[in-house]
C-alpha cells in the first residue's frame, strides 16, 4: 500500500521509545490505531545523530504543548533501531542529542512503514524527510517530502494542522483568525 492523501493512512505497529527509562524497557509497541480520535503529526527523518534532524525534532518538541493544545500528537520515525533512538534521546542537546524529547520515536527497522508512506530511499535504506498529518479517523490529510538537507517548518506544520481542523476552504496564506472562503 502507498499512502495517498484523502485515503486511510497505512497501518503500522512499531517498537518505540515510549516510556523507556533504560535500554531494558525499550520497545513499547505503537500503532496508528493508538491515535484514533486525535490528530497525528507523523514524520520521518533520515537518521539519528545527524545534523538537520535534531533541529527539526527539537523544534517540534519545543512546541509540543501547542500541538497537544490543538488535539494533536507527534510521532517521529526513522529506519534506525530503537536502541539507536534511545541512545540519541539519552544524549544531551549540546552533544548533538535530543535529550528531553516530549514525544516518542518509533523504529522502522524493517523499512515497511517508510515504504508504505512512500519515503524510503531504496538505495540508502534511510527514510526521506516526510511529514504527514492524519485526522482522528485515520485518514491522511496532508503529506510533504523534502530533500534531506532542508528542515521542515514547525510554524507551517501548525498552520496546516489548524487549517485542516477548520474543515473549511482556506485560501493561500490563511492563518488562524482569518476568514475562510465561502462559495455561493
Give the termini separation.
38 Å
| Number of extended strands | 7
CATH fold assignment: Glutaredoxin
Gross morphology is: globular
User: What is the percentage of strand-forming residues?
Assistant: 15-25%
The major beta sheet can be summarized as: 5 strands, mixed
Mean pLDDT, rounded to whole units? 95
Report helical residue fraction.
Answer: 10-25%
Second-tier CATH architecture: 3-Layer(aba) Sandwich
- CATH class, named Alpha Beta
H/E series? EEEHHEHEHEEH
* Order of strands in the sheet with most strands: 5-4-3-6-7
Structural class: alpha/beta
User: Regions with pLDDT < 50 over 5+ consecutive residues?
Assistant: none
Tally of distinct domains: 1
- Work out the helix count: 5
CA radius of gyration: 16 Å
Amino acid at each position: 500500500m502507498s499512502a495517498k492523501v484523502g485515503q486511510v493512512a497505512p497501518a503500522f505497529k512499531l517498537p518505540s521509545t515510549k516510556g523507556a527509562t533504560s535500554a531494558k524497557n525499550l520497545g513499547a509497541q505503537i500503532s496508528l490505531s493508538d491515535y484514533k480520535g486525535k490528530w497525528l503529526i507523523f514524520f520521518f527523518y533520515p537518521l539519528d545523530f545527524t545534523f538537520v534532524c535534531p533541529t527539526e525534532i527539537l523544534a517540534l518538541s519545543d512546541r509540543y504543548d501547542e500541538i497537544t493544545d490543538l488535539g494533536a500528537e507527534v510521532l517521529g520515525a526513522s529506519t534506525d533501531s530503537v536502541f539507536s533512538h534511545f541512545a540519541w534521546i539519552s544524549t544531551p542537546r549540546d552533544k548533538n542529542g535530543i535529550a528531553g524529547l516530549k514525544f516518542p520515536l518509533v523504529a522502522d527497522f524493517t523499512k515497511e512503514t517508510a515504504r508504505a508512506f512512500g519515503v524510503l530511499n531504496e538505495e540508502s535504506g534511510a527514510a526521506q524527510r516526510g511529514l504527514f498529518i492524519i485526522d482522528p479517523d485515520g485518514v491522511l490529510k496532508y503529506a510533504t517530502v523534502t530533500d534531506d538537507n532542508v528542515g521542515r517548518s514547525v510554524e507551517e506544520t501548525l498552520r496546516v494542522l489548524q487549517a485542516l481542523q477548520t474543515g473549511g476552504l482556506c485560501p493561500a496564506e490563511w492563518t488562524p483568525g482569518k476568514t475562510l472562503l465561502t462559495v455561493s
